[in-house]
Design goal:
Length: about 325
């Protein structure tokens, strides 16, 4: 009878020991997985890729500096996070004071980058399971400038650019791309990859240029102005019309023979200057044909002369309307 009781007690003791061992293993598994320091990092990266800025900000426990918040949620945030691939969340490294550093290695545009997240122990749940949270810090700020424009696009989202500049709070890691694609003005895209908050991101500067569409519209208006001016000079039979071109002579021009034409139209160049857009001086050539009589000999000859001309013009753009105001010196 006593031997049976001993065997039963031994079995109970073995079962208890196995249960305790299993509990220890289970606790360790949980603390190394869903209760590990890597778990908040994985949840944060997942929130970035889903464009869930509120969750990402709550997990990161970050403060938002005075700046434009357009990049902190939705498509802009998803676009920033979609650029990294090959993500590997590494093993935590002890930093003392109940803090650990969790490294994350990844690739953006073929470049290998690393972000280091600092986390701290914030107690336990159910006596055994660790709680980890990010050490609070401020979000980085990305500065963007654009030449002669109050609008731009950042990660595909239209943003206001008062006086051609603005600052945006951004999450990390991610890539941010600024561009300007307007009807009349555009700027090549420029981008920056942001790995952390330790170093401020390089500013994105958009160098705006006139589009081929605007240059074509201005060229067409310049051509129309010169053609109309030449036609009016022919109609009025003027050697010195109110045009960029003119002819002087001591001979008498036979009435009805004056014929003006443009041989070389100006090449249009539009550049930023003093906060506005200006058209560079317009240079061209005009031909005059006529019959002329020498006042001393009475001889009548054919006049065929080509004159260089140059003039400036004021460019005004209102919505989809392009307006040119020629400025003539003669």
């Amino acid at each position: 009878m006593s031997q049976a009781l001993v065997r039963i007690a031994a079995l109970w003791l073995l079962g208890l020991m196995l249960a305790v061992a299993g509990a220890v293993v289970a606790v360790n598994l949980v603390n190394n997985s869903i209760a590990s320091p890597q778990q908040p990092v994985r949840e944060y990266l997942d929130a970035l890729q889903k464009g869930d800025g509120a969750k990402a900000l709550g997990l990161l426990r970050a403060t938002v500096p005075q700046s434009n918040p357009a990049m902190l949620d939705g498509d802009a945030l998803k676009t920033a996070a979609s650029k990294f691939s090959g993500v590997n969340v590494g093993a935590p490294e002890d930093r003392g004071g109940k803090q650990v550093m969790v490294p994350v290695d990844y690739t953006i545009d073929g470049n290998q980058l690393r972000t280091e997240f600092l986390l701290q122990s914030s107690g336990t749940q159910w006596l055994f399971f660790h709680d980890w949270s990010f050490v609070p810090a401020a979000l980085p700020v990305l500065d963007v400038t654009v030449v002669n424009s109050n609008q731009a696009s950042l990660n595909g989202v239209p943003v206001n650019m008062p006086n051609g500049r603005n600052s945006f709070a951004v999450f990390y890691p991610g890539e941010y791309e600024a561009s300007l694609n307007g009807q009349f003005f555009a700027a090549p895209a420029t981008r920056v990859a942001l790995a952390g908050r330790e170093m401020p991101p390089a500013p994105l500067n958009l160098l705006t240029q006139a589009t081929d569409g605007l240059k074509g519209a201005v060229s067409a208006k310049v051509k129309q102005f010169l053609d109309d001016c030449a036609a009016q000079a022919d109609k009025a039979q003027q050697l010195q019309p109110g045009c960029p071109f003119y002819h002087t002579t001591n001979n008498r021009i036979v009435p009805g023979t004056i014929d003006w034409s443009i041989t070389d139209y100006p090449t249009v160049s539009i550049e930023p200057f003093g906060g506005r857009w200006v058209v560079a001086p317009l240079d061209g050539k005009a031909r005059i044909k006529a019959r002329q009589e020498d006042l001393f000999t009475g001889a009548v000859t054919e006049l065929n002369a080509v004159h260089d001309f140059s003039f400036t013009t004021r460019l005004d753009i209102e919505g989809d309307t392009v307006k040119l105001t020629p400025k003539l010196s003669n």
